[in-house]
Amino acid sequence: MREEAIVISRYLVGKQAPEDLLTRYINANAALNLQLEDQERKVWEFCVKSPALVSLLDAGLSLSKPQSILRKKIYLMFAILESSVAFTEHFLPQQRDLLWLPYLFFRLGFAVFKAIVGLVLIAILIRVL
Q: Is residue 77's pLDDT more than 90?
């Protein structure tokens, strides 16, 4: 569970969360009884071993199964990180100028691409695993 928390925190903010936040994630997971089904567990275990795939998995699940336990786990860590003073710079709005718009449109297009690739990845992993 600790490794899972590390992978999700790195996915969300680009670095490992401090130990107290990892513990908070583990305790919240147990309290909420976020148990993965066999199929989801196999896919998740594969992604934990290949953390670069977590963003694709998340993007694909956002379209195919938005209420999945895997997404709830990501939401849980998001809430924990967002409430931490250590990560406020990741969640507070920032002043941007108009030159930032092309970058925003690129990121939006890339998000659509990741969602499509994620859907394909999920389908492949379900069949292979």
A: yes
Helix (H) or strand (E) holding 4: helix 2-13
Give the whole-angstrom CA distance, residue 25 versus residue 9. 10
107-112 long-range contacts (CB < 8 A, ≥24 apart) are 111/59
Distance, CA of 66 to CA of 89 (rounded, Å): 27
pLDDT beyond 90 at 81? yes
Token digits of residue 126? 């379900």
Position 47 scores a pLDDT of: 86
Give the pair of three-digit tokens for residue 15.
């670095």
